[in-house]
Fold:
Amino acid sequence: EVQLQASGGGSVQSGGSLRLSCTDTTGFTVKSYTITWARQAPGQGTEWVASISTQSSAIDYADSVKGRFTISRDNAKNMVYLQMDDLKPEDTAVYYCTPGWRTLGPLGQGTQVTVSS
Structure:
């Protein structure tokens, strides 16, 4: 069973930055899979944020985060990252990482990001 874990969330003011990290918890090798970041805002459905292929040759972002967020990976460390800059209150959500390209699940352990104005 695939279980990915996101970490690195927190509370920041508008315009601030955070870096989220994604790794696996049960031996599923993150470095072997395309990884997607998705988020769930309060009372909202799951929204795709960004995806990255295994060798970082393909990367894509949702229009809402393009130019502010950067997805990357370090296969030697079995980690995928989401650098979030110029954060806005509308970025407030629980962020998850999941295997696949532009997928919305399965969602493992998420991390809360709260942006205040």
About this structure: The mean pLDDT is 94. Strands lie at 4-7, 10-13, 18-24, 35-40, 46-52, 59-61, 69-74, 79-84, 93-99, 111-116.
